[in-house]
Each structure stands twice: as structure tokens, then as C-alpha cells.
Amino acid sequence: MTPKKTNKRKTSKPAKSTKARGKTAHAAGTNPKRVAAILAKLDEAYPSATCELKHENAFQLLISTILSAQCTDVRVNQVTATLYKKYTSPEAFAHANPRELELEIRPTGFFRNKTKSVMGASKAILEKFGGQVPRTMEEILTLPGVARKTANVVLGTAFGIASGIVVDTHVQRLANRLDLSRNEDPKKIEQDLMRIIPREKWIQFSHQLIWHGRRVCVARKPKCAECNLEKLCYSKDKTV
Ligand code: SF4
Predict the structure, then answer these.
(1) Distance from C-alpha of 68 to C-alpha of 152, rounded to nearest angstrom
(2) Could you report the per-residue pLDDT of 171-197, keeping only the tens digit for each?
(3) Distances (CA, A) of 154 to 25, 53, 99, 134, 235
(4) Which of 41, 235, 239 for mutating ligand 1's site (highest number of atoms within 8 Å of CB)?
(5) Which residues line ligand 1 (CB under 6 A)?
(6) 81-121 pLDDT per residue, tens
(7) Cβ of 11: how many Cβ atoms within 10 Å?
(8) What distance in Å separates the CA atoms of residue 75 and residue 14, rounded to the nearest whole number?
(9) What is the tens place of the pLDDT at every residue in 206-236?
(10) Largest CA distance in the chain
(11) What is the pTM of this model?
């Protein structure tokens, strides 16, 4: 009699694929508890963070934000302190002498392109929007020189409308360092952040990250010893 074959079952669990392990590792940075802890720490450090471009209305904020491309807010504020006394409305900017305006905004850099954007946006506001800065992302993006970053600054700060998250150079750097996004393209970073940050925090989160990037998590030699996010951060750029 031939002995019966016994069906031995394998009991060991299948090993995780590299792809699955990669997914798990990626999710670690955007774990909702970790994101909530980061938001709480930002609230603690910067309870009243706000836009540092001086302005009295949405139109001035729009112009200042256009001027702030590749320039510090301090420099823009110095220029606009006199600029807004001379040009007091969209009409004034729309009908400016371009050569004069170029000289006036020259200290902010890229002054020829910025003059075209400032005058073009002012004309469009007059001709298409009855002299008022539009309040929707779709409309504001039709203004010359206005891309998502500028649109988010104006809609969020001037009107309190959360249409997206401002991704400037600081937000871009910090989103990567804090492992909230592994993308480098600002549009993709914004999409990543919009997925994990609650909408009611979008405006304040943008200001707080910009403040943190200017004061503590600076581009070269971040001041990690002073950073209240240090325990949550595992960036390769850490200095402690
Ligand atoms: S610990 Fe350092 S690198 Fe991390 S967020 Fe703070 S300052 Fe930036």
C-alpha cells in the first residue's frame, strides 16, 4: 500500500513587494496624524502669520504680488510706499507712461516684464471686470502676469477665499523638507498639499510656511535647533 501524500501548506506570509514598501514609506510623511501635528506646531509658532506685502486693498496687493516675483517683500514695500501715492487706481496704472513706470519699479528687478504685467492687468481689470479685482480663480488667472501663486495670494489674503495654497520658493522647499510632497513642480506640490491640508487651513498654512521659511527653515543652514517642528522632521537638510 502506498502511503497517502500529505498536503503541507505554506504558512509564511508573502514578502511585501518593493513597490508596496515604497508606498508605505511615502505615506509616512503625509500621515493625517503627522500632518495635524505639523499644523498644530505651526499654529503655536505663528498664530498671527499674515502676508508681509503692505497694501490697502485687493488691487494694491495684486500689483505688489506681481512686483514680488524674484524680489523680497521688503524691497517691494519700499518701492510701493511711493508708487501707490502716485498711482492711486487701476486707471492710473493702465494709463501710466511705461518708461516712467519701468524706472519706478526697476529696483524690484525684471522691470520691463513687470511693467507690462502691471499695466496689462490694470487694463484688463478696467475693461473686463468693471475696475474691480475679480474674485474667482478662473477670472483672476485671465489677468496678464497672474499665475496660481499670485492668484492664491490675492484671493486668500484680500478676500479670504481659499482657492488653493500659495506655493512660493519657501513653501516649495518646506513641503519637500517636511515630506509633505515629493514633487518639485509648484503646481504638483500645490495639488499634494491641497489633498492633505484641510481647506479651512489653506490660507493660514500658506502664510505660516512662508514665515517659517523666512525665519527658521531658511534655504541654507536651516536653524533646526530653534525649530519647533524638529521632532517631526527627518529632512536630510537638518542641521541637528
Ligand atoms: S528641523 Fe530644520 S529642516 Fe526641519 S523644518 Fe525645522 S528648520 Fe527645517
Answers:
(1) 14
(2) 999 999 999 999 999 999 999 999 999
(3) 36, 11, 27, 10, 31
(4) 235
(5) 177-178, 216-217, 222-224, 227, 229-230, 233, 235, 237-238
(6) 999 999 999 999 999 999 999 999 999 999 999 999 999 99
(7) 5
(8) 60
(9) 999 999 999 999 999 999 999 999 999 999 9
(10) 109
(11) 0.87
Residue 48 Cα distances to 33, 52, 76, 194, angstroms: 23, 12, 22, 21
Q: How confident is the model at residue 62 (pLDDT cuts 50, 70, 90)?
A: very high
User: What confidence score (pLDDT) does residue 2 get?
Assistant: 41
Please tell me the distance between residue 212's alpha carbon and the centre of ligand 1 in angstroms. Answer: 9
Q: Of 155, 170, 167, which Cα lies nearest the Cα of 218?
A: 170
What's the sign of the alpha-carbon dihedral 49, 51, 53, 57? negative
Confidence of residue 167 (pLDDT cuts 50, 70, 90): very high
In this prediction, residue 7 carries a pLDDT of 42
**Residue of the nearest CA to atom 1 in ligand 1?**
230
Closest CA to 225 of 236, 237, 239: 239
> Rounded to the nearest 10 degrees, what angle do helices 98-105 and 73-86 cross at?
140
Q: Are 61 and 55 in contact (CB under 8 A)?
A: yes
**Grid cell for residue 201:** 487651513
Give the number of the atom of ligand 1 that is nearest the alpha carbon of residue 229.
6
